Amino acid sequence: MKSNRPAAAAGIRYGLLALALAMIAAGVIRGEQLEVLNKAVRICLECIGIG
Amino acid sequence: MNTKKWAALLCAVLTLGILSGCGGEAPASRPAPEQPPVQTSEPSPEPSPEEAGSASDLGSLTSFNAVTLDGGSFTQDDIAACDVTVINFWSMTCAPCVMEMPDLAAFASALPDNVQLITVCLGGSEDSVKSVLSSAGFEGVTLIGGDGDLLELCRNIMYTPTTVFVNSAGELVGDEIIGRQPDLAEGYTEAINRVLSADGKAEISVEIE
Amino acid sequence: MFGVHRDRVKRRPPLQRIVQLCSAVLFNGYALGFRKGKIFTGRSKAVCVPVLNCYSCPGALGSCPIGALQTSLGGAGRRFPFYVLGLLMLFGIVLGRAVCGLLCPFGLVQDLLHKIPVPKLKVPPALDRPARYLKYAVLLVLVVLLPALAVTGAGVAVPYFCKYLCPAGTLEGGIPLMLADPALRGLAGALFNWKALVLLVILAASALIHRPFCKYLCPLGAFYSLFNRFSFYRMELDKSACVGCKQCERSCPMDVEVTKNINGGECIRCGKCKAVCPTGAIASGFAFGVKGKSANDWRKSV
Q1: C213 touches chain A (CB under 8 A)
Q2: Which of B147, B149, C68, C213 lies at a 20 to 30 A Cα distance from C274?
Q3: How much is the pTM?
Q4: Could you tell me if C172 and C93 lie in one domain?
Q5: Complex-level ipTM
């Protein structure tokens, strides 16, 4: 088990990296980054403590 | 170096914090105890030319071409057709804007013929915008794009919701109203009457069912 | 052998501080915004930065990941937030909580406040240990569940964490904008008083406790902590070089049990343990493969 640990850890590491990149790609295809942009370019009154 | 000293210090700091918190952020601002200064409360029978209000800094609407949600067009001529045009700028990513839409719709329905209320949606998909407006019961015009003075005005709008009050010449009169209002009808009616009296027209009162 | 004391002898700021400062400036580089009281509206705001950095900060060049997550979850479409979650996972798997220790401007603020020469408070473990779980509750409830599930009449949800808790928003967004725009100051009401109080308490606590927000409240730190064990950037302890002096554990701002669990969820990869270790047993860096930096060390290291 101990000698397998590094391989398992590397597997999880690269697997999560691949998953993260795939999710980002999926989001961009659906245009989710535009929703983020739309929110971020206008002052969020709630975020700064008003209304 | 004992617990009592630390506790006393902590209490002192927190007390200072609470005291300054009650009065607002000490280094940054002292919120006005009276109502938001963006809206003047004294009726001015003859407003002098100097009292232009801060909204005029945002721009004017003398020449522009806009596209409405239904695919129609809206220009300065549509502004000239009414004594006062109330314009509410909002966005789908702004929760308070969406939450005040029903109040806005009710107010808009109760307006007389010489005053119109339109909204300008600064961001969001057409379907979601239509859905929000129809659940709120808003039947007026909503602009989703434009050029000229309107584009310039949109660029200067910093917060949502922001509501401005425009006379038939396309000038923004008085102060803009920023943020969701607890009593929308009262504040908006006052602002509308400010525009009307500046143009020498009769004031209105609005009754919401 | 003198390498460990090099920083103190030469009196230059440690690498961590330099990285933190550069990072704060990089993420908030729109200097014009502070003067004009406006925020940056460029395309880069479609990308989330890895740190807790309010997108209403006049200087912010990117989007706050926690703010963006709430926006995506609470938005009209209520769709699964692939983009924001993917970015968060990317930062998590590459850096883990090194984001907290090296990049986060609010972390820097807490670090600097801790330097104020007042007596430091040691939080008793009976209080400290359960309190560390509070940040997961903040993440789950305020950032995820409430925006995703709270049904407002209109179908667009409020960003609960941003609105009711986030001190970074008050500090980086609220204060600079209010300084620049008097109309905004007039609008401040009960909500602002609450947020100002939250900010003040956290800032005051930072002088007494090291990084109280990171330990007990930050939802982003909570999220990244889940990746610490697997992240590419990691700490390594060479057990064969360790002499058990526990200097590392004494200097750790997050009270990590360095000798037992150096890559545990609370480690923010600030490098203090590495700096004080008398035998140089602690290293940090990117581990790219099974054969990584020193494959043999896997057997020896934690």
Answers
A1: no
A2: C213
A3: 0.84
A4: yes
A5: 0.91
